[in-house]
Amino acid sequence: MRLGFGLPVGGTGATPDNVSVLARHAEALGYRSLWVFQRLLCPVAPLNSYYGAPNEAWPEPFRSTLDPIVTLAFIAAQTERVRLGTSVLVAPFYSPVVLGKQLATLDVISRGRLTVGLGIGWSRDEYDAAGTPWEQRGARIDEFIECLDALWTQDEVKFKGAFYFVPTSRVEPKPVQKPRPPLLIGGYSEAAFRRAGRLGDGYTGGNMAPEKLAHTIARVREHAERAVAACAEEPNPFEESRAVMIRGWALATEGQMQEGLARIVQGDVHAPGTQPDRVLGIAPGHSR
Q1: For residues 189 and 120, is the Cβ–Cβ distance under 8 A?
Q2: What secondary structure, in 3-state letters, does 82-123 show?
Q3: Residues 156-170: pLDDT tens digits?
Q4: 192 and 138 in contact (C-beta within 8 Å)?
């Protein structure tokens, strides 16, 4: 098991000093990874509930959140070994060529420490604000991943799908990690589990009761095995890197998060393997 921290990118604790201190302390203590999430906005009258707590108000930290990619670039410049991950970026808010360029650059400047978590999101308000259709979002992210993979692995990229197009081009720099940074898929539906097993290198999720973890792991692995078997005559280049990654965390109040952050800043954090704090990344069997 490898442990990591979710960086304080939301709420009043999301300051440059707090993010920096936590990241540097976590690396010094030997933690494996640092993670960020994405929120574009916090609507005053949301069109739908927060998936983690139906019929309740959106969590207070969502009112102010740092951009995930900019935050990881900031931390990459201050650390050397700890891995940097997104859980998750909402892929349909971007075009593949724009996000592909940003993430490849991040992998380069971090010297190959990036783990990419992608999902389809759940907020209709954010979809509307991003100008992205809510319909066919599942098909859209499937094609997005295929296009992203082409951008990262092909010397001359040419892609034409139902949603995305790239003219024959050289798109560089490529990511440092080969054939690509670990790509984890988030979500809680069977379609998300299938997507993680078929198109990704693993799965990322949270707000999940422990008893549900075994079921999730089993479903993703089953879909991964089916994908590998389906291309047995033409071996999958990502087969060896397939793993199941589960990121779990407990919902906390703003006060609890401030208290936990204060303990970390003050150095009151136990070494990995003894008593992890409230916000953890759990990656059974993940080799990266």
Answers
A1: no
A2: CEEEECCEEHHHCCHHHHHHHHHHHHHHCCCCEEEEEECCCC
A3: 999 999 999 999 999
A4: no
The closest alpha carbon to 132, from 103, 62, 141, 200, belongs to 141
**Residue where the block lists tokens 């078997």:** 229
Question: Which backbone phi and psi does 225 adopt, to 5 degrees?
Answer: -65, -40
| Phi (first) and psi of residue 10, to 5 degrees | -130, 145
Residue with the two structure tokens 């490529």 = 174
Task: Return the structure tokens found at 140.
Answer: 């859209």
Identify the sign of the CA torsion 260, 262, 263, 264. positive
Cis peptide before 173 (omega within 30 of 0): yes
Task: Report the residue count for the chain.
Answer: 288
CB 73 within 8 A of CB 109: yes
Mean pLDDT over each residue of the chain, to the nearest integer:
83
Residue 75: both structure tokens together: 């931390």
- Cβ neighbours of residue 269 closer than 8 Å, sequence gap 6 or more: 25, 26, 29, 263, 277
Q: pTM value?
A: 0.82
Ramachandran region of residue 121, left (φ > 0), alpha (ψ -120 to 50) or beta?
left
Q: Residue with structure tokens 């808010």?
A: 93
Distance CA 60, CA 45 (A): 14
Per residue in 160-204, pLDDT tens? 999 999 999 999 999 999 999 999 999 888 999 899 989 999 888
Nearest CA among 146, 147, 154, 198 for reference residue 179: 154
